[in-house]
Target: Amidase
Amino acid sequence: MEWSFRPAEELSAALRAGEVTSVELTDAAIARIERDDKAINAICVPDFDRARDAAQEADRARARGEAAPLLGIPVTVKESYNMAGLPTTWGMPQHRDYVPAADAVQVSRLKTAGAVVLGKTNVPVGLQDIQSFNEIYGTTNNPWDHDRTSGGSSGGSAAALASGFGALSIGSDLAGSLRTPAHFCGIYAHKPTLGLVPTRGMVVPPSPALPVDLDLAVAGPMARTARDLTLLLDVMAGPDPLTHGKAYRLTLPPARHDRLGDFRVLVLDEHPLLPTGSAVRAGVNRVAGALADAGARVERHSRLLPDLAEVATLYMQLLFSGFVARFPVEAYEQLRTRAAGLSAEDQSLDAARLRAMVFSHRDWLKVDSQRELYRHRWRQFFTEFDVVVCPITPTPAFPHDHTPSPLERRIDIDGAEHPYFDQLVWAGLATMPGLPATAVPAGRSPEGLPMGVQLIGPMFEDRTPLRLAELLERTIGGFQAPE
Model:
């Protein structure tokens, strides 16, 4: 039987029923990787010997009557997570030989849950791109079209799942890095509420793995079904035992509704600062139509919605102000000179990004205070709505673009060029206030490329967008293997 594209939930049931062993699942996954990954290049650091050992131990544990949420399930891990004995480089050539001594907290949780880790997946340099390529491991291709990107920075994980290389993967998201690859590759991903999932051990090498509360960035699950997302999130979520975990225990509230028709949804398909491509707009409207047909309350406008242009600008300021922390002094001074030359009338996102890269601490505190005001606006919004449905990026997966400076790249939206990083405006809608967002497949473009939408929910109510994702999967379909 072919197991490669079966959900983790089904694999667990088959393992319990004795229909398959973990060794068989692991060998099948490894065989598929060895056969198909030359064209995809998703698995940049294989760990097959240890995976086979872990699979054997999982089978022995099951024979002893033991149980665990992911016992015997083959999975992959984004390269940016520390794994003892394997390199962690973040795609940076200067760190190609760095090998951490201990697992990241999320890798430890996977192993405690019984998962079999096949290896690590490819990333862009420093995790700072919407594509996944670097000098060490090369380029990860989109399984649907090898001339296009799989997304970034969790592009290797998304490509692996779309190719049948393991049932689950863990990634991270600062600028859509879970959601964009899911959208480009036709899979599911969930950006958790900020702070819900500890990130210790997912750190720029060779920095120490400290239990730091990151700003904007989260770790999260990737899967081929919505239910598998929830399964993996339940393994990942909960406070770090070194800090908050000494005092707190996690109890996520249940989803607000269990029926599609009970959801109150705001649908957005246009942004004031960037057009939405026709293919993506069609995907958003396909989801909106399915919701309306099921009896859900679907609105297109709300006085409670925060100003999208202001949110995008604030997000760019918070995001890019953090990118320059490790810049050499000479590079930082060049940025200061460029920012000083901007016209006061230039209020473009490009200008906002440049100004943010030379923020003073006083400047940053000002935008951080504005963020808190927007969080309050969102709390008010979610008293009348349950979820926002909107794009993840304005286009399906785009062709590889390795222009050295991302600031010189352009994104083509229905024949018109726009600044490359402007496509992050949709990712920032959830990231800036720290809201949960679930990426779900929403059909294919006229060229046959997968497209997704994101379901943004209330803070710490992650089960609400996850439940809606599950109900939509039953209604409009979900993952399909690349043809």
The two ends are 19 Å apart (CA to CA). The chain has 14 helices and 17 strands. The domain at 8-255 is CATH 3.90.1300.10 (Amidase signature (AS) enzymes). The CA atoms of residues 75 and 166 lie 5 Å apart.
